[in-house]
Structure formats: C-alpha cells, structure tokens
TrEMBL record:
Flavoprotein keyword on record: yes
Pfam families documented for this protein: NMO (PF03060)
Cross-referenced InterPro entries: Aldolase_TIM (IPR013785), NMO (IPR004136)
The organism of origin for this protein: Streptomyces tibetensis
Protein name: NAD(P)H-dependent flavin oxidoreductase
CDD domains associated with the record: NPD_like (cd04730)
EC number: 1.13.12.-
C-alpha cells in the first residue's frame, strides 16, 4: 500500500490512523502506518507532553503526527477579549441546562462524586487551548499537523512549515478543499458522509474523486466508510494517496475506552446504528444512535446549541453516562464502518487484514484488466 505520499513520509503503508489513544497511535506507526494522536481532550499542556513522551518511547523511531481542533478565525468576547471558557459557559441558557438534568434524572444517572471533575471537557476547539497544544507538540519530531476544522490560521501553517511539518485539513466538499489548498496546506483529507465525528453531506465514493480533481496535484487522503483492504484499494483507485482511518481503531486491544459496556455496544452495532447528530458538539457528528441523541434530535426538545456551547453544556453529562455505563444513553463518535468492527483485535492484526484485503483487490483488478486487454 505504497504511494508517493507514503514514500515521502517513510512509511510502509499509506494508512493514516487518527486516534485519541497514545498506545494506538504508536502501534499504528510501528505496524508501518502513520499514527495521528487526537489532541482535543488535552486541556492541560503537561498531559499532552506526558503522552507525547510515551509515544516517543514506544514508536520505535517511526513517524507520527498530531490532530488539533482549531478554528481558522478567532472568536472574540466583548471588549475584544479572547473568548474564555467562562464566557462560553455564561452563554448557555438555563432551559438547556434543565433539559440535561431532566434527561439524566429520567434514566437514573448518578452524580459525579463531590470534587470529581468531568473528564470530558472538550474545549480544544478554542484557539488558546489549541495554541497551547501546539507549543508542546512543536517540541517533538511530529511529521504532520492535521486540523479537524479546516485550515489552521496562517501563522500556524507557517510555523509548521518552518519546522518541516506537513499540514493537513479535513474537507467535506470540493469547494472546502479548494479553500484549504489556497491557504498553503500540504494534504487534504476528503472526509465523506459515512465517517465518524464531524462530517458533511457527500459520500466518500463521490467526494474523493471530486476533491482529487479539485486540488491536484496536492495529495488527498480518503476518509469515511473505509475499514477493509478492498476499500483502501478503492480509495487509491479513485486517486487518493492514502486513507485516513479513525473508527476502526476503537475496538483494538490497545484502545482504552474505559468502558466495557461501550466496547460491547460497538462490537454489536451494525452499519445502520449510527446517526449524524448535533448532540455532542453542536455540529453534525456521526455517532452511535442512543436515547441521548434521540432526546436532542426530538423536535419537542430545546434543540442543540452551536459549537462550542453544546460541548460545554453536555460535558459533565457525558462523563457521568460513560462512568456509570448507562446503556441507553451510552455512545461515542463512530462511522458507519462500525458494522465491520465485530471483534477485538490488535492494531497489528488490523493491518494484517488490511494488507491481505488490499492484495486480493489488486489481484482481482489485475485479472479483470488482463481479460480486458485480451479482448
């Protein structure tokens, strides 16, 4: 599974694996792919430093990268102050807070222990948090910086390039991809409708070749609905120079979901058991469909708030649901490929399966091409 981009980065397989788990990121790189650590949950710089130290010690010298959630434009608070978490908290209506309390009470979700902080405070999309992550990350030999909200600000792109770090941005349409290209990024991740997390409206089979044509010769990674070697081969055939996989690693043995109940739900889920909902962050994000997503998507409810208000509103609730394993409400961002994730395997076993499937697909295409050439 070699392409020009994989050769540039010195990796054996053109498989880029996004994950929030350091052990998974390191295992992906050791297996010959390119591990990308998601930074959004690191609101304390020392915690990110700790985990990058761990990756450095366990990656066997292989390349890896970091994914941040950083807006291209800074949101300002009144009087031109940088928006703080307290500013955001003050914008959340009491009616929405009461809806959260009522939903949790309906399902008997216990409170967190006194003094126990929520473990799910997603504030990493706020610029000052993301910049603190970058101040840490650029002290490490990362080879790629990816941004889940499009192109990073121009000064961040310049800073990355000054340190020979490639910059990638996710796009859900050819128009978005062209805007990213014009900012000077190096790689576009074409993320289709099937993908877990924040997605657009266009399916991968349509989106990938559109983006490839729109930004050529910039390399494109295909994302969304890819979980087998045959699908990797299809993505490369469509013009991508690699694939960006995220959901597939959630049920690997190296992942640390902290919830056996959630792992069981993922293993049991079919490809039709996900939904694009604003319940988690305020932007459409594909995730397991649960009674939590149903409550927020119900027209009788108050409706979700825009990002980042929704994420802060539900942070403690999500922590409580996960800690106590409240099955009807328990979910996570995941793509439609969850239907293939029906056993726990090591990252290496996933790569073995990907390479076998890829070789089978290539052999099949070669046989078809050979018959066509003889006709």
């Amino acid at each position: 599974m070699q392409t020009e981009l994989s050769q540039t980065l010195g990796i054996e397989h053109a498989v880029f694996g996004f994950t929030p788990f350091p052990a998974v990121a390191a295992a992906i790189s050791r297996a010959g792919g390119f591990g990308v650590l998601g930074a959004v949950r690191y609101t304390v710089p020392d915690e990110l430093k700790r985990d990058l130290d761990w990756i450095e010690a366990h990656v066997d010298g292989r390349p890896y990268g970091l994914d941040v959630v950083m807006p291209a434009k800074k949101v300002e608070a009144p009087n031109n102050r940088t928006l703080t978490e307290a500013d955001v908290e003050a914008m959340i209506p009491e009616g929405h807070r009461q809806f959260v309390r009522d939903t949790l009470a309906k399902h008997g979700v216990p409170e967190l222990a006194e003094g126990e902080a929520s473990g799910w405070r997603i504030t990493g999309w706020m610029e000052q948090v993301a910049r603190s992550q970058l101040d840490v990350a650029f002290d490490y030999p990362i080879r790629l910086l990816a941004n889940a909200l499009g192109s990073p600000p121009a000064d961040v792109i310049a800073r990355a390039h000054d340190q020979d770090v490639l910059v990638a941005a996710l796009a859900g349409s050819a128009r978005h991809a062209e805007k990213h290209r014009d900012t000077g990024i190096d790689i576009v991740v074409a993320q289709g409708y099937e993908a877990g997390g924040h997605t657009g409206e266009i399916a991968s089979m349509v989106l990938t070749p559109e983006v490839v044509d729109a930004v050529a010769p910039l390399p494109v990674l295909a994302a969304g609905g890819i979980g087998s070697g045959q699908q990797v081969a299809a993505a490369l055939t469509l013009g991508a120079q690699g694939v960006w996989l995220g959901s597939l690693w959630l049920t690997t043995t190296e992942a640390d979901l902290h919830s056996p109940a959630l792992t069981r739900k993922l293993l049991a889920a079919g490809s039709g058991d996900t939904v694009r909902s604003r319940a988690l962050t305020g932007k459409p994000a594909r995730q397991l469909r649960t009674e939590w997503t149903d409550a927020w998507d119900d027209p009788a409810g108050p409706g979700t708030l825009p990002m980042p208000l929704q994420g802060l509103l539900v942070a403690e609730a999500v922590s409580r649901i996960q800690k106590y394993g409240v099955d009807p409400l328990l979910g996570t961002p995941v793509g439609q490929i969850v239907g293939r994730m029906n056993s726990e395997r090591s990252v290496q076993a996933v790569f073995d399966d990907l390479t076998r499937g890829f070789e089978q697909a290539v052999d099949r295409v070669n046989r078809i091409a050979g018959r066509s050439g003889q006709s």
